[in-house]
Design goal:
The chain is mostly helical. It has one domain. Helices cover 68% and strands 0% of the residues. The chain has helices spanning 8-34, 52-90. The chain is rod-shaped, with a radius of gyration of 22 Å.
Length: 97
C-alpha cells in the first residue's frame, strides 16, 4: 500500500509546509512583539492594542512547534532513506571468485 503517511514524499511535503507556515508564524510573532500595537498594520488588528503581546507570544509558540514538526518530518524522511539504502546494500548477489 503506497501513499498516506507511509510514503516519504508525503512526509517531505508535510515538512516543507510546516517549515514555511512556521517561519511565517515566527515572523508575525516578532512583528507583534516589536511593533507597538497602535502602529500594527490593519490586517493584524491595529485597533486591539491590549492583545498584541498575547498574539505575538502565541504566534511564536505556534511557529516554534511547527518548525519542530518540520524537523521531525525531515528526520523521518532521512531515516527511511537511510534504512532503504542499508537494505539495498545488504541484499547483494554473491560474488564469483
Amino acid at each position: 500500500m503506497r501513499g498516506g503517511l507511509r510514503c516519504s514524499a508525503t512526509w517531505k511535503k508535510l515538512g516543507i509546509a510546516l517549515a514555511i507556515v512556521g517561519g511565517i508564524a515566527l515572523a508575525v510573532g516578532i512583528v507583534y512583539l516589536v511593533v507597538p500595537g497602535k502602529d500594527l498594520p490593519s490586517i493584524m488588528g491595529s485597533q486591539a492594542t491590549a492583545h498584541h503581546v498575547k498574539r505575538g507570544a502565541t504566534a511564536l509558540v505556534a511557529g516554534a512547534l511547527m518548525l519542530g514538526g518540520a524537523v521531525v518530518s525531515f528526520a523521518i524522511v532521512r531515516r527511511r532513506r537511510k534504512r532503504r539504502r542499508s537494505l539495498s546494500t545488504d541484499v547483494q548477489a554473491p560474488r564469483a571468485i
